[in-house]
Amino acid sequence: MNGNETFDQLAKFTRETALLESISYNLEWDERTYMPTGGRAYRADQVTYLAGMTHRRRTDPQMGDWIAELQQSELASDRHSDAGATIHRIGRDFERACKLPQDLVEALSRATVVGQQRWEDARKADDFAAFLPALEEIIRLKIESAERLADGGNLYDALLDEYEEDARSEQLTEVFRDLRSELVPLVAAIRDSKTQPNTDLLRRNFPVDAQRAFCKQAAEAVGFDFTRGRLDETSHPFCTSLGPSDCRILTRYDAHWFPGALYGTLHEAGHGIYDQGLRGDQFGLPPGTYVSLGIHESQSRMWENMVGRSLPFCQHFYGELQRTFPEALSDFDVNAFHFAVNTVEPSLIRVEADEVTYNLHIIIRFELEQALISGDLKPKDLPDAWNQKYQEYLGITPPNNADGVLQDVHWSAGLLGYFPTYTLGNLIAAQLFDAAGEALGDLDAMFGKGEFTPLRSWLNENIHRHGRVYSPNELVQRATGKPITSQPLVGYLKQKFGALYNL
């Protein structure tokens, strides 16, 4: 068999594995949206069975033979070609998958399905003790996975690498320390400013049906394609793609807190625009797969904050907002609304945190995760540790576990090592936004006229269409001419909030 024939065999096999995996994603989406609670136990059986099938394919010895042959072929000589990237990335994934036995993969799959079910019930009941046994099992299995993946190295890095290739906790700790040193005094200066927004207007009555309609309109305006996706509701917003033309985004609504739904929708639409911008003809292969969660998060945070919370965006949509919610907004102008949706105030809920304090939420979770994986922190002690860090970093203490340690779905889904990608996403978003502005001109003027296509097209050309052809660091370097750095984000935050709060 020549190299091209072997490559075709590998690609076909990998696409079929992606097809199987997409069925599992469909089941998970269904569970988080419309599935009756009585179906939970059997759904865990279904997802576990599919996880086992997928893992057998990912570790099939035939794949190892194909990869070994192709790595010596001319096709692999250029790692940044579609074929070369496919061979290199699939080889990397195969090596990682082979370190995990099938029984461990299946056990973790079942534990996370059950864990998410227990978490949802526990959060509603504010009952951490009811969730604790499921969490303990997930942590135990994640530590076992990390031990097998790390080959004697740092356990947390082994988990982090699943979401952000080549990221290391030591480097992140340094970046987060530098960020914290910039953010804490900025938060203090904002707190002490005599100029403060009126956020009461955001707590007025915003009928949920009207929110649904407006959120869909906003997502469509920035570029989410509803012929290849849909918007639904869930307890914790997320985005998932079930195929090259089937992207699902989900948000949640509160009749007396409008920003949660609007900016949750824009955030998930940003994820969806990335997925919809990947090359459909490469779906299931590395060139048609997102490169990392840090890059993915950069897209969602950019559309949510740098676009959605900008004054020009608010100006463009404010007339429609007032027509949609006349009772709530008729007596406030756009500047008051813009200031209100950009209020900076230490808060309990990460997904609704402002841009300045948001990364402090991530630092807390990053530190707690490392302690859980190292064994320095036991799952039963999480609520106290969580509350202590919130008091230390944000000056507030959660009144209950539902708005504290139980607020995020990630640990119940086994996603340890995921949280740091949120801050990486903020760093990358600011850097890409600066580069896009340099390339395209006055973005604010475009947003004010409702012109979002130029930014979306620039991102598609420089980020989306490359898939995993480049590593995250290589992709940012190519798009911006610089390695990932914190300075654009710090500069953006100081300029924006300095102006708003008259600092």
Largest sheet geometry: 3 strands, mixed
Rounded to an integer in angstroms, the radius of gyration calculated over CA atoms is 23 Å
Count of beta strands: 3
**Spatial arrangement of strands, main beta sheet:** 1-3-2
Q: Helices and strands: which structural class? A: mainly alpha
Shape: globular
Percent helix, as a range, is 55-70%
CATH topology annotation of the largest domain: Neurolysin, domain 3
| Termini Cα gap | 69 Å
- CATH architecture field of the largest domain: Orthogonal Bundle
Strand content: under 5%
If helices are DSSP runs of H or I spanning 4 or more residues, what is the number of helices? 21
Which assembly state applies to the chains in this document?
A: single chain
Query: Average pLDDT value?
Result: 96
List SSEs in N-to-C order.
HHHHHHHHHEEEHHHHHHHHHHHH
Low-confidence stretches: none
The CATH class of the largest domain turns out to be Mainly Alpha
Number of domains: 2
Binding site for Zn(2+): 267, 271, 297
Function: Broad specificity carboxypetidase that releases amino acids sequentially from the C-terminus, including neutral, aromatic, polar and basic residues.
InterPro entries: Peptidase_M32_Taq
Active site: 268 (proton donor/acceptor)
